Amino acid sequence: MSGKFCVSLTCAKDDTDKATVAFVIANAALGSEKDTLVFLSTEGVRLSQKGYADDVHEDGFMALKDLMDNFTAVGGKIYVCAPCFKKRNLDEDNLLDGALMVGGAKLVEFLSDGSPCITY
Asked: What is the domain extent for residue 12?
């Protein structure tokens, strides 16, 4: 069984419920001692920008910014799809601390040992 877990997130403010739940699950995986990665693609790459998630707070959950901060503070990794990021003309100088721009091969490498992956 893999000691890894991946959450693939394809949305941001276009579906704040999914974005929030994705980070709830990612934090739960870290709490279960899994090497956990959140892969941001398509609209999800917007979450890689400092300040973007600051005003997102779904009822019944912690604020998205807090979930994201908690995730990275305890060792969670955030990979940002480079082509998706570039397509949206986002600012690489405004990336969240710890977020890493990657191509698809990096995700495949992480998943190659049979790591489970869920998508929001």
From this structure: 4-119
Number of domains composing the chain: 1
Please state whether the predicted TM-score (pTM) of the whole model is above 0.70: yes
Q: What is the DSSP string of the chain?
A: --SEEEEEE--STTSHHHHHHHHHHHHHHHHTT-EEEEEE-GGGGGGGBTTTTTT---TTS--HHHHHHHHHHTT-EEEEEHHHHHHTT--GGGBPTTEEEE-HHHHHHHHTTT--EEE-
pLDDT digits (tens, 9 = 90+) for 2-27: 799 999 999 999 999 999 999 999 99
